[in-house]
Specification:
The complex is a heterodimer. Chain A has a single domain, classed as Recoverin, domain 1 (Orthogonal Bundle), CATH 1.10.238. Chain A has helices spanning 2-23, 29-36, 46-60, 70-74, 81-87, 97-111, 121-127, and strands at residues 43-45, 68-69, 94-95, 118-120. The N and C termini of chain A lie far apart (45 Å). Chain A contains seven helices and four strands, in the order ααβαβααβαβα. Chain B has one domain (4-181). Chain B is 51% helix and 22% strand. Chain B has seven helices and five strands; from the N terminus they run H-H-H-H-H-H-H-E-E-E-E-E. Chain B has helices at 4-7, 13-35, 42-61, 64-75, 79-90, 93-97, 101-117, and strands at residues 124-127, 134-144, 150-160, 163-173, 179-181. In chain B, strand 4 (163-173) and strand 5 (179-181) form a beta hairpin. In chain B, helix 2 (13-35) packs antiparallel against helix 7 (101-117) and helix 3 (42-61) packs across helix 5 (79-90). The longest helix of chain B has 23 residues, at 13-35. The chains are: A mainly alpha, B alpha+beta. Chains A and B meet through helix 1, helix 2, helix 3, helix 5 and helix 6 of A and helix 1, helix 2, helix 4 and strand 2 of B.
Chain lengths: 130, 183
């Protein structure tokens, strides 16, 4: 039964992941900045980042049960199953909002190259590979 | 401590999610125009709108996965109930006295779309051509409360004649998919 569940999960993830990479348009840093930058200073601070990620969590949580499964997450981005398990601190197969924010918090740290507590446009461009 | 690369196999992951949300925002803004022509019930109008806009979004993004997210967001709850649950609060008080049934219906549809599909700071507009009244509903912040419920703070405007009325509030998503105004 466990093996079957794992297979179903793997199929779900495999079927969901390639579609996004194949059809995703060029990323627009201006639009991305606009969504997160609430005070209009052309920088994303930690609070703005957390608010944006909370909203991402809300939209990705399709069944609105307050948690993200790997299938829900795979529907919007490429997911490394092992990384998902690492983020799933209590091991229940779902990410709480807290677990999710902790995991993506590392993204902020990585993007904020000069460690000033903000992601500015040049840093965002580098982070997004543009 | 995990790195970005360890959590998502692509460092563009967050950006990709945000771009998906851009599409949702566009969808929300588009709805304002379409809602003005709706004359059927709240639920059927919302379903028609969702169907039309989901196709447009999928076409624009060219990705079935993106469509899955957005489609689920649009179809994920009983939209009619959401609108109905919000109606009292959104159209209440002195403003509500000036709105007719069609105004409130349009407002309900806009509220449904805003709460379920609009990113923060993206407005969903409504307009009743018969009365000339119009307005917007704009979520401004999303969070989970202590009970794990999703809550969204929102701002709304209602234009009656030459006057614009503004109000703020917070609604939380109930287990049945409806949104209850809590402040």
């Amino acid at each position: 039964m466990k093996a079957l569940s794992a297979l179903i999960m793997a199929l779900c993830v495999i079927s969901a992941v390639p579609a996004f990479g194949a059809g995703t348009p060029a990323l627009d840093t201006t639009a991305t900045m606009g969504l997160a930058d609430k005070n209009g200073d052309r920088k994303i601070d930690r609070e703005e980042y957390n608010q944006r990620m909370t909203e991402v969590f809300f939209f990705a949580d399709v069944d609105k049960d307050g948690n993200l499964t790997i299938v829900e997450l795979a529907a919007v981005t490429t997911v490394d199953p092992q990384a998902f398990r690492n983020a799933d601190k209590d091991g229940n197969g779902k990410l709480t909002l807290g677990e999710f924010l902790y995991a993506v918090h590392i993204d902020f740290y990585t993007a904020d190259a000069n460690r000033d507590g903000f992601i500015d446009m040049p840093e965002l461009r580098v982070f997004m590979g543009q | 401590m995990k790195t970005v690369i360890e959590f998502f196999s692509s460092r563009k992951s967050v950006a990709v999610i945000l771009v998906v949300a851009v599409a949702v925002a566009g969808c929300a803004n588009t709805s304002g125009g379409s809602s003005t022509s709706g004359g059927s019930s709240t639920l059927s109008s919302a379903e028609n709108w969702a169907s039309q806009n989901t196709k447009a979004i999928i076409g624009g993004l060219g990705g079935a996965t993106a469509g899955g997210l957005i489609g689920a967001a649009l179809h994920g709850g009983p939209l009619g109930i959401i609108g109905g649950a919000l109606a009292g609060g959104l159209a209440g008080g002195a403003i509500g006295d000036f709105l007719d049934g069609r105004d409130k219906q349009q407002q309900q549809q806009a509220a449904s779309r805003a709460m379920e599909t609009a990113p923060s700071n993206s407005s969903v507009a409504w307009k009743n051509p018969d009365s000339g009244h119009s307005g917007t509903v704009t979520p401004v912040r999303t969070y989970q409360n202590d009970n794990g419920q999703y809550c969204r703070e929102y701002q709304q405007t209602v234009n009656i004649g030459n006057q614009q009325h503004q109000a703020y509030g917070t609604a939380c998503r109930q287990p049945d998919g409806s949104w209850k105004i809590v402040s």
